[in-house]
Amino acid sequence: MLFHPLDCNTWPRAEHFRYYTDIVRTRYNLNYEIDITALYRRVKEKNLRFYPAALWMIMRVVNDTMELRMAVDEEGNPGYWEYCVPSYTIFHPDDQTFSDIWTEWDADFSVFYAKAVEDMETCSNIKGVQAKDGRPDGFVSLSMMPWLSFTSYACDTYTAPQMLFPIFVMGKWHELDGRRMLPISLSINHAAADGWHAAKAFHDIENLAMNPDIWMV
User: Fold this and answer.
1) Mean pLDDT, to the nearest integer, of 138-152?
2) 158 pLDDT above the threshold of 80
3) 193 near 68, Cβ under 8 Å?
């Protein structure tokens, strides 16, 4: 997994990066509901699990969007990962705890889905915060909270400004005018991405959700 440094002499957001890193340290949260009617139907038709399908969908957008794959090197200089893997939570119903696992990324949905299901099953009985070792530095944090259909979610992460990776949280879907709507929260460092990038990411995720026949073959 390669890390690509950015040239701050030519990168259009260089001034914005320094402003939100050195002066106004800001993480922000956006919440949006995407239409998963077609996606839900397709998942059921193919007898698949929804969670790994949703993980692939979000990670496809992440890996198509440089601003969602940003990090800094040891000197604090900005850059971006060639690609990122999903670092996501699984729930243990016997004691109501969770564990974080990860799955190697693959742009082929079928390949990624099989890997994710295998990881989920392998780690299903491994307790503790980190249930799978070896996670690479290039990752994005994701979680599913299927017990509540929220309208807002905030994630206050007290850490150094170098934490640039986004955090996605999905909630419980609900019906609205005959459509299935899935709430998704995005928390991200303003040094990495502005509102335009976040809005585009949500729209790109929704476009995938509304056209699953293209990628879920």
Assistant:
1) 92
2) no
3) yes
DSSP designation for 1: -
- Which tokens is 68 given? 């969602």
Distance CA 68, CA 8 (A): 18
| Catalytic residue status for 16 | no
Please give the structure tokens belonging to residue 94. 């016997």
Asked if 214 and 57 touch (Cβ cutoff 8 Å), the reply is no
Q: Which of 43, 49, 69 is nearest to 164 (CA)?
A: 69
Tokens of 78: 């900005």
* Bridge partners of residue 85, in order along the sequence: 139
Alpha helices in 22-175 (DSSP H): 37-45, 50-62, 109-122
DSSP-derived secondary structure letter, 26: -
Query: How many C-alpha atoms does 47 have within 13 Å on its Cβ side?
Result: 0
Integer Cα distance of 217 and 214 in angstroms: 7
Starting at the edge strand that comes first in sequence, how are the strands of the sheet with 70-72 ordered?
A: 3-5, 78-81, 70-72
Non-local (6+) Cβ contacts of 160 within 8 A are: none
Stated pTM of the model: 0.95
Beta strands in 112-155 (DSSP E): 139-144
Angstrom distance (rounded) from CA 7 to CA 5: 7
Helix (H, G, I), strand (E, B) or coil at 173: coil
> In the chain, what are the domains?
27-215 (3.30.559.10)
User: Is the distance from CB of 104 to CB of 115 less than 8 angstroms?
Assistant: yes
pLDDT, residue 14, reads: 97
- Catalytic pick among 4, 190, 197, 203: 190
